[in-house]
Structure formats: structure tokens, C-alpha cells
Amino acid sequence: MAEERKPAGSKSTVVKKLKATAAAGAYQKQWFFSMKERVEREGCDFAILNADVPMEIFRAMDIPFVVNQWWAAICSAKRMGRKYAGLMLENGYRPDLNSYDSQALAESFDPDDHKVDADGNPMGPWGGLPPVTIAITRLTGDAQNKIFGLLAENHGAALYTMENTVARKTPLNWYELAPDRWEELYDKDRLDMAVEELKELIRFLETKTGRMFDMNRLEHVLNLINEQEGYYKKTRDLIASTHPVPVTVVDTINAVMQAQWQRGTEWATAHAKSLYEEIKALVDKGEAAVPNEKYRLMWLGRGIWQDFGFYQRFEKKYGAVFMWSMYLAMGADAYIRNHVEEDPLRALAARFIGMEDFLHMPPWNSSWYLQQIKQNGIDGVVYMVPENDMQAVEGSYFIKKALEDAGIPVLSFNADPVDPGKWNAETMTHMVEEFIEKRIIGKETNK
Amino acid sequence: MHIRDCALQDPAFAQLLDAYENRDKAANQWRAGGGKVVGKMGFDVPDELIIAADMLPIQICADPEKELKETNKYLEFAFEPVVRAQFEKLIDGTYADQIDYLAISNSTDVIIRIYLYLRELHRQEPERPIPEFSFIDILFTRHRLHQTRNEFVLDLFRKDVERWAGHPIADEDIRRAGAICNENRSALRAMAELRRGKEVHISGSEAFVIISAGLFMERTAHTALVRAVTQAAKQWPVLKGPRVFFTGAEQEDTTLYEMIENAGMVVVGDDINWGDRYYDRDYNTNYPVIRALVDRYMLREFSAKKATPQERMGALDWEVDAAGAQGVIFYTHLYDEVACFDMPKQRKSLESRGIRHITFGRMVWPENRNQGLQEKLNQFAEELKAEGGDQ
Questions:
Q1: Is the pLDDT of residue B137 over 50?
Q2: pLDDT, averaged across chain B
Q3: B342 and A385: CB-CB below 8 Å?
Q4: What is this model's ipTM?
Q5: CB pair distance less than 8 Å for A145 and B307
Q6: Any idea where the domains of chain B sit in the sequence?
Q7: Which domain does A436 fall in, by range?
Q8: Taking CB atoms and an 8 Å limit, are A166 and B112 in contact across chains?
Q9: A with B: how many residue pairs have Cβ under 8 Å apart?
Q10: What CA–CA distance (Å, rounded) separates A113 from A90?
Q11: Number of domains, chain A
């Protein structure tokens, strides 16, 4: 557990918007347009990848790509949801199934995607994706074959799928083993298989794009990622050990998530460094996100994109601050694989085969949350259980039980994290207020 | 009830019906005789290995009447209803009294999660009466790499079965079991000809009973009964009505087929695991034994869960043609809906060939709880008849 650090004479400045958060938002747009311009200028291949596909290979081979879930967030921010639901229906598809993962599929039905309206504004999100020639997913869920199969067909792109294997060995301290001792973390045959999957992916991409893979380039990319994630680790440790916290999840979620999609680039590494330095400066100046911090809350689940203000509603009244989310902590604990030079492909395999399991497989998720609760001095957990997404099913009973057995109050509720129509801010706020009053403050009073 | 008197009066069919209705009977007898029983969850557990070890494989099934007292604590809503009901029997001690071991195959997302939850439940509550289980992480992407991986995976399962049996399994025993299963599949194919031939002698419900009885009884005995009933059914009256193919939600009993038949339609084929998919593709007795298992379980017709929409469209076109169906019924349960991604292409292809279809989505289980279902089936039957689909 990190040493607790309390800035002397904490000032009252509330930090709700870091420069690094704004910079990440600005960069992604600039990056997208420059990438799109390149694809159209060079007529080169362009790939869409599911989030768990090892993008590092594409980075190393300089193949332009976007991640399906990142693009879904852009579509959502551009308010394409209603139109895309209509397009899915028009083409015979259910808009309510895997809606987040299906945004790019819906876009592929849109005849206006690359057109401009009467005012000259693009009708597709940021003018639509460049021509997709490669669609790649991992078979971590039954819907993946379907969504990417249709996506590839609609674009006339090549479909490539990677298999997923199930862990037999599940040491509880995965977060301690992952950086250096991954051979102890995984079944050997699963790692061997994942390395072979990577070799086959590389061969496919070489054939498709005419570009030859360069192992030294991959090593460089992996080292950049280690450096980037190393800054997240320092940032997480710093926030965990500082009372009151210098920033909340409102800043860290966006700052980290957007840069993670760019991992393996010089920009992403520099951004992670700047994030750390900015937060460190706040700590050094004794600035607090919530000066009257009394209770530290953990948020379990995907971000509430449609209502980020939700996280801040309990600060003034209760001094309750949402200071932990998986986004920064996953960067800190799940990505780093040291000594990549010994075998870059195996190091990469050791990263991508575990990523889904760290979050969605009991007991790996619950054991990590417990460890994080201790490190961060968490007083209570608010847990949004995915309502109808089998791929996000994660043993919520086991998580809740593990945490409550350790004496941590947990508020769990069911919700659809991507459907604003199903989110009731008033009900949710009331529920969390009641939780704070009865389970957290009440617990303290009863001591 | 669309099991006709001609079937009920047939001694072989009566025995099959008994096995179908009393699903724990054969297992209990087997155990009473000192044998061991292996429950199967998922549809890619190789029977051949279990039979080769002189154990009885039986399919894990749901009880529609049972309250889900335990399950509702552990499973999220996203788990489909039939599997939820199966899980209840696995953790409430029901199956602990009926099976010795449990084999779970990587057949769908939901089954994988059930394995992970059982494993965690066992870790946290070791006193809970859950039979010892093994997970078969078989892959379905048709690449050489995955074929080789599957050989490794089935070798691991072989070792588990050997441990359960208390003795090694010889290659020749696996080949012999492969031949027993092939004989069973061959008998079922011959039966299916009477279900989908020009003249239909066996109804969908009757075929369902004949096929699914094999999931709960000794294989050689099942084969003999299937052969006998097939011989007798040649004399059963010919069924009249529009010929339909059923695709979608897994069925564990004849409720839905009976509703379809009540509407006057004849179910001449389906692609479910308790139906035609059960006897697809043989075990190749000329291959090395494990390779032959991989070949059978990896390369039979795609399941709805493990294929692209393009592959599923091709499969349905072929199956509908082979069954000579005039209409197709698409049917999915709430929370078991991934097949919905296949349907638009499948429907379009059927339409291009003049085959009518009807879609039932977000259906609840058990099937008889769906209000208005019978009326819609009646209407579909009328539409088919109006088009001259009443043979």
C-alpha cells in the first residue's frame, strides 16, 4: 500500500478540468482528420478493429485504423444514435442488440455518410470513416462474428477473426504478476497459442497490405506503451496516496481513455507524462478537487457518458468524491509488460489475452477491486451492473460479495450504460444519496 | 398433443417417449448398476470419449416448473432463460444426485460464463453439491492453428475422463465408441427421411422425441429403438399441411412444435441441437482418434452462435432445400438473440426464392407463456395454405 500523503494547508481550488483532458479531446479530432486524409491520399488499407484486438501490430506496421468502440463514442457524441437506430431497422436489424458495438455497422448502411448538407456540414460523424478495407475482431463474444461479418461485407472489406481461449489458471494476484511474471499468470499453452495467432495475423496483414512487419518497430511501440502506462501507474499511486484527492474521475476517465486508443505513439506517451506532471503540480501546491473530502467512492462499470455531472453531485453535500474508476487503474495495472526485448510477440500476447478477463472474469476482477480499495482508501463502491450485455457479464454477485465481506459498503444497480433514455438522473442521485447517508455515514456513526 | 396414436401404440416409440419424459431414469439405472454418468452442458462435448470410458453421457436440461431460488442470486439478467433453469439444477443439488461428473463445452458465450460462475461458486462455497466438472475449450474458426489447438484441448478432456473412469481409455475403445455413435447418427438420418421425404410419416414432435430420447439413454439401445420405430413409421399415416423449417431458439421439449402442428403445419426440419444438428457429421474411424473427434465437432454445420451471417444464410438455404420446406419460422428467446444478426440476410435469400417466413422475437420461456403465439402461427399456416402450401 502506498504511503499516505496529505498536502499541508489544503487550498479550496476545485479541479474539474485538467489541461490534459482538453488536450486529449482536441488531439483525437486532429488525428482522425489527418489519418483520413492520408488514407484517401495514398489509397492505402484502412482497418476497423474491435477494442481487444492487439492494435500494437497495426501501429508497428503503420496501418491506419480506428477502434470500433472509440468510433462508437464519436458517433454517440455526434448524436447519430437515433438515425443509426433507424438505419438498422430499415435494413432489418434490431437496433437494441449490442447497440454500442453496432454503431459502425449502422453507419455502413448510411447512404449519406460522406455527403454534406445544404449548409456544407458533413452528414456522417466527422464526415464518416475512410474506406474500410480490413475488419478485425476477436471472438470474445457470440455477436462479434456477426457484427464484424456484416461490417466487412457492407464495406467490401476483408474479415479476419482471432480466437479467444479461456483461462484455466487464475492466480488471484494477477496485477502483481502481469508486468514481469506473466509466464506464471497464464497457462503456457494459451500463451503459445496467442503468439501463433499473432504470427498468423501478421502474415495476413503483410499479404493484404504489402507491408512487411518489423519486430524492432514492434519493440519500440511496446516500450512506448510501457512508458505511457508507467505514467498512469505513477498517477494512480499519487492520487491514491493523496488526501484529499487532487482530481476526480471526471478528469481522469476522459484523459486516460482517449489516450489509450493512441497507445504506442509518441503523442500518447507525452500526454500521459503531461497528465502526471499536471496532477503532481496540483498535489505539490496542495490543491484539492474537493477540499471538504470526507468519503472516497469507487465507480465500478463503464463511464456514464450521458451524465458526467452525476459524479460530482455528492461532493458539496457530503464531501463524497468519486476518485476511482477502472480507466486509470487498468492503465496502471493491466498493460505494462516489461523486458519486451526478450520476446516482443510473447509480451504482446501476455497483454491482449488477459485484458477482457481482468475485468470480466471472476475471481480476477473482484480480487483486483479489493486490492484497489485498500490502496485508494475507498469508503464505498457504486456498481453499475450491465443490464443486457452478455459480453459484459462479470460475476456481479461475486464482486459484491467479496467487497461486502471485506466490510466495504456496495450500492449495485442495473442499467444500460449507453442508452441515455434509460438513465434517470434524479432516481440515481437519490439512490446514491441514500447509500451515502445510510451505508457510509451510517457505518461511521455506528462504529 | 401431436404425438399421434400410431406412435403411442408403437412399442419402440413408447420406450423412447418414456426416456424423453423421464430424463433421469436411465441415469439412475446406470448408476444403480455401478456405472458412472457424465452430464453434458453445451453441444460440443464428445460423447465418443465418455462412451469409450464405459460411462453414460446425458444432456443437462431445464425444469420449466422449478423456481429459480438459487440462480437469481448469482446470474445477471443477460443469461438466457433456459440456461438459467439448467443452472438452478446444477447448484441446488438436483444433478448432484443424478450425475457423477459434468463436462461443459465452449459452445456459446452463455455456457462459457456458466463455467466461470460454477468455478467461482465452487471456490467460494466448496460445500455446495456441484458435481466435479471439466471445461472443453474447443474453438470453431476453421484454421489449421485452431484444429491443432482443439486436438490439445480434447487430449486434456480425455485425461479428465480417464481420471473419472479410473482407467486409461484405449484408442480402439474410442474408435469403437465412434462407430457406436455413427450407427446412432445413421439410424437418425434414416428416421429423418420419413420426416422430410415427399411423404411425411413422422411429425416434428414425434421426431423431437425420437432424437432427444438419445440424450438421456444408452446409445446402442437408442439406436435399436430408432431403427425399430423407423421401420414401423413407414406404415404410419401420411401427414398433410404446409411444410415448415424451424430455426432459432434451442428447444428442450415439444411444446412449441405442438403449437406449430396445432396450426396445421408440418415441421420437416430444424437446426437446433436437440434436433437435426444432433446427428450431423460422422466420426471418421480412419483418422487418428483425437483428430477424428476434432473433425466431427469442429466441422459439422455451424451453430447459430459461431458463424457469420453469410455462413448462416448459406446453411439455412441448404437446410431448407434439403427439407423441402415451404416456409421458415424464425424464433428467438429474450436474452438469447445473437441469431437476430443473421436473419435479415437469411430472410432476403428466402424471399428471393419465394419461401415465406415469419419471425418471433423476444419470446419468453416456457413457450406456452407467450400470448398470441398460437394465433400468429395459425395465421402463418393460413397464408402458406393460401399459396398452395397444403400438400
A1: yes
A2: 96
A3: no
A4: 0.96
A5: yes
A6: 35-171, 199-386
A7: 19-64+130-446
A8: yes
A9: 106
A10: 16
A11: 1
Of the candidates B305, B308, B344, which has its C-beta nearest A149's C-beta?
A: B308
Q: What does pLDDT average to in each consecutive run of 10 residues of chain A (447 residues)?
A: 40 60 92 97 98 97 97 90 96 92 96 96 97 97 96 98 97 98 98 98 98 98 98 98 96 92 97 97 95 97 83 95 97 97 98 94 97 98 83 90 97 74 83 97 78
User: Which of B76, B338, B347 comes nearest A92 by C-beta?
Assistant: B347
Which residues in chain A have their CB less than 8 angstroms from residue B120's CB?
362-363, 395, 398
**Hey, what's the torsion of the CAs at B223, B229, B231, B232, to 10 degrees?**
170
> Which residues of chain A make contact with B73, given a CB cutoff of 8 A?
397
Domain membership of residue A108 (yes or no) is no
Nearby residues of A318 by Cβ (< 8 Å), 6 or more positions away:
A294, A295, A433, A436, A437, A441
* DSSP line for A84-138: HHHHHHHTT--TTSSTTTTHHHHHTT-TTTT-B-TTS-BSSGGG-PPPP-EEEEE
Contacts of B9 by beta carbon, 8 Å cutoff, 6+ apart: none
Question: For the domain that residue A364 is a member of, what is the CATH number?
Answer: 3.40.50.11900
Residue A12 lies in a domain: no
Pair A386, A393: CB distance under 8 Å: yes
Question: Identical fold at B35-171 and B199-386?
Answer: yes
Which set of grid coordinates corresponds to residue A127?
464526415
| B76:A386 CB<8 A | yes
Among A93, A146, A383, which would you mutate to test the B interface (most chain B Cβ atoms within 10 Å of its Cβ)? Answer: A146
CATH of B199-386, picked from 1.50.10.10, 3.40.50.11900, 3.40.50.620, 3.30.565.10, is 3.40.50.11900
Which of A163, A361, A392 faces B139 most closely, judged by CB atoms?
A: A163
Give the minimum alpha-carbon distance from A145 to chain B in angstroms, rounded to a whole number: 5
What single letter denotes the amino acid at residue B240?
K
B76–A393 CB contact, under 8 Å: yes
Neighbours of A30 (CB within 10 A): 10
* Domain presence at residue A81: no
For residue A15, give the amino acid letter. V
Tens of pLDDT, residues A168-213: 999 999 999 999 999 999 999 999 999 999 999 999 999 999 999 9
* Position A104 in a domain: no
Of A390, A398, A401, the CB nearest to B78: A390
Under CATH, which architecture does the B35-171 domain have?
Answer: 3-Layer(aba) Sandwich (3.40)
- At A417 the pLDDT is 57
- Kindly report, residue by residue over B233-292, the tens digit of the pLDDT: 999 999 999 999 999 999 999 999 999 999 999 999 999 999 999 999 999 999 999 999
Ramachandran quadrant class, B112 (left: phi over 0; alpha: psi -120 to 50; beta: rest): alpha
